[in-house]
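hi!! sorry for the late reply, been swamped w classes. u asked for the two structures so here they r. pasted raw, havent cleaned anything up. first the sequence of the first protein and right below it the tokens
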Amino acid sequence: MNEIMLLDVVAVLEDVPQHGLLCVEVGTVVELWKDGVFEVEFSDTSGRVYAFAALRADQLLKVNFSTINRREKATGEQPEE
């Protein structure tokens, strides 16, 4: 169920200095490589790509937005802007 798939949104669990990435930066899986390696694209709020990185599954956390949406519906909370 938490298996990382193509186009999933993921967060980096550790700094990846060779790509200029810091822990918790968020990207999108754009390619599935062999042996549990994923090509992840990182872009800014304007949609400009600032990094591509081939990362192992143990370096990534799949981001699940449904958990956030369920809490908002249950409590009536609105996300902060």
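now the second protein. again sequence first, tokens right under
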Amino acid sequence: MRIGSVVLFRDGRPFDDEAPRAADYLRGSDLEVEIDLGSGPAEATVWTCDLSAEYVRINGEYRT
């Protein structure tokens, strides 16, 4: 598993000492995460929206 350029797991082994670097990367707005499930080649792109506390607060102020 890779977050940005930071490898957190490889061959079932965790690299816990890399967690602070991954946390720094996750503060960004565009993120790349790579996960190898070991089930063959595949690729997907996921687009998400802002789910920050501010977004939830603003959208929770009204009813649909």
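hope this helps!! also noticed smth abt the second:
The chain has two helices and five strands.
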